[in-house]
Amino acid sequence: MNSTRLRRLVMIAVFDIAGPLVAYNLLRSAGFSTVSALVLSGVLPAVGVIIGIIQHRRVDAVGVLVLAGIAVGAILGLVSHNAKLVLDEGSVPTAVFGLICLGSLATPKPLIYRLAMEFVGPDSQQGREFTDLWQYQEFRHVFRIMTTVWGAAYLVEAAARVVIVQNTSAGTALAISKVMPYAVAGVLVLWTIGYGRYQKRRGERLAAEATAAAAAASAAAASAASADARDVPSGNQSATGSSAAEGPGPERP
Q1: Segment 213-242, tens digit of pLDDT
Q2: What gap in Å lies between CA 99 and CA 59, rounded to an integer?
Q3: Residue 36, φ and ψ in degrees, nearest 5
């Protein structure tokens, strides 16, 4: 594992999962109300997003959604003093991302294809291969299926988180809401890799079958042409022999 990946895992553990849970329990033990503890523990994920923006020197759309969700949840919680509204903020960016995925199906290139191109880099070898393959309907269909599955999965996750918040305690809902996004993302990534490999093998198999069929057709055409070429002189020779057997015709007066 390289240092960059290890640093990302540490950032996720500190600012997104363990940090907020520990902060919430410490604040509750110190006498803070549920709403106050939730709002203050939500500062850590916001700090993590800001650090990521500073490190990469660019604003990430997902990060902006997370920051917006934290801000909206904090404001609603402080105004209404309702802990469930604070916890529901996590469902907002999840639902928005799911809707964006499904909405992108109406555009020339779905969101998962755009994200894949951004990840591999359009100037990389794989990025150039993706660009070349985009002309094929089967390749476009694969990314539309992926985008549909991702969009539907995130909408289901958002709905599930709302149900969990409404039917469990604040501490339990907070713990689940911190772990669930990574579990869902992990399952989706594994499915995407498996589905992509399956479609790649299927495409290679179809290409091999098409190549074999073309080769067989070419061989059959060549064999037919060769047979025709052999038949032509045989017919001429037969006609010549027949004329010789009949002999010269009667002389005309």
Answers
A1: 667 666 666 666 666 666 655 555 544 454
A2: 21
A3: -60, -40
> What's the total number of domains in the chain?
2
- Cβ neighbour number for residue 65 with a 10 Å cutoff: 18
Altogether, the residues listed in the chain come to a count of 253
Number of CB atoms found within 10 A of residue 37's CB = 25
Q: Are 171 and 190 in contact (CB under 8 A)?
A: no
Q: Are residues 182 and 125 in the same domain?
A: yes
Tens-digit pLDDT profile for residues 156-183: 999 999 999 999 999 999 999 889 999 9
- 27 and 114, same domain (yes or no): no
- In a domain, residue 234? The reply is no
Task: Clarify whether residues 67 and 156 are in a common domain.
Answer: no
Residue at 211: amino acid letter: T
Determine the structural domain holding residue 36 and report its residue range. 10-89
CB atoms within 10 A of CB 232: 9
Chain centroid, CA 61 distance in Å: 17
